[in-house]
Amino acid sequence: MTTQNKITTTLKAVMLSLGMLLVFSGLAQERTDSLIINVGESKIIFLIKDKQDLNTIQNYDLNAILNELSMKLETDSSQQQTLVKEENGAKTVITDTTIVVIKTTTEQIESDENNEWEEEDKHEESEKTKRSIHYFNIELGTNNYLKKGKFPDATDEPYTVRPWGSWYVAINSVNSTYITGPLYLEWGPGVSWYNFKFQNDAMRIYDQDESVTFIEDSEYPDASFKKSKLTVAYINFSMVPTLHFGHSDANHKNRWLTLHDSKNKENFRIGAGGYVGYRIDSYSKIVFEEDGDKDKKRNHEDFHLNNFRYGLRFQLGYRDTDLFINYDLNNLFSENRGPELNAISFGIIF
Fold it and tell me: I need a surface site. Which of 28, 43, 157, 250 has the fewest CB within 10 A?
């Protein structure tokens, strides 16, 4: 039997935790015995701590170890077995080589590999299931109101508003909470402003004792009116369950993408929920020119507006763009104090 066959018989089944010079990194401090295998003029030295280590060596395949080190046994011109290292096409004869074998059985190796995968999965799952992330957004759009399902301009009402110029603005503090699968809950407080810009620039809203009225201005008969509007500000709280659909990358192992994931640029989002709000301010404003001078008047009143608002919200998003629609289920004005109008707003989320 050749030297190579003897070595292969003694050392079977793969695992390498070895390297030249590693002996000085810790094992050198412990009491060890050595197993020396002569290969021609070369020597392979195994450091053995105890009998169990010696038994463990039988689970290693020397050929696999040497392949990992880019070394192999060759027969030289004198028919001697020689340890050779091959690197970039060049061969170097190795004389004395120290190989450190860490005490690990095949079963332990498989267990360690499984544990590594489990730890990686736990880490990814932890990253994935961070329950909530927080961010701010700004909503910009237009607003109007409906009377029995129709816009007021259909019946030429005095409070008809301009679609362009009646801006809706909101600033929101949003939490996106992971629920399960593709389902998230977007929730949090915000502040919003309705701006109802009247179609008739001379139309003014007046707060009377029993109700609100809309009358063309008579206070400034020689004025040229540029703008007339009603502004209502609310503090709100919304809750919108949202589905996120998208393709995950290899690192996420087919898990759903999250809204805050940096690789989330391709996903599609759709959500529907509700909101409640409380009125914190309201005022009317007119802008006009008189005798060549531009002037504006602002009047802070409650205008018999409902202090509370509540409604339904719909969101739709793709990549970096999200659209929204809000519809107030309650009337803008208190009962029997003004026209029965349900405010509606829609636009884009930044």
Answer: 250
